[in-house]
Write a structure and sequence with these properties.
- Helix content is about 20%, strand content about 35%.
- The longest helix has 10 residues.
Length: about 90
């Protein structure tokens, strides 16, 4: 399986800056693992889109798009679970 490249949108970078500093390393580690497997065990496809997925990292959700044609994972948002789907 090809290795994917992961890129963060500006909105995801802003979200990470707002999160408690003690939780950021585990979220970054989960995002980095998407390079090896963009559809890990426990990921969910979002309803209404063919390429949108989410993974859980504690109380936070990482929302991302997978572009298989160019092997890119684009992280769109990193939000607390109560705000993730608004």
């Amino acid at each position: 399986m090809a290795s994917y490249s992961v890129c963060l949108k500006r909105s995801a970078e802003k979200d990470l800056r707002r999160i408690d500093k003690s939780r950021v390393p585990s979220i970054i580690a989960a995002i980095e693992k998407l390079e090896e497997d963009p559809r890990p065990v426990g990921c969910r496809k979002l309803v209404g889109s063919d390429t949108s997925y989410r993974i859980r990292v504690g109380d936070y959700r990482v929302l991302y798009l997978i572009e298989d044609a160019v092997c890119v994972v684009e992280v769109e948002r990193v939000r607390h679970r109560k705000d993730a789907y608004r």
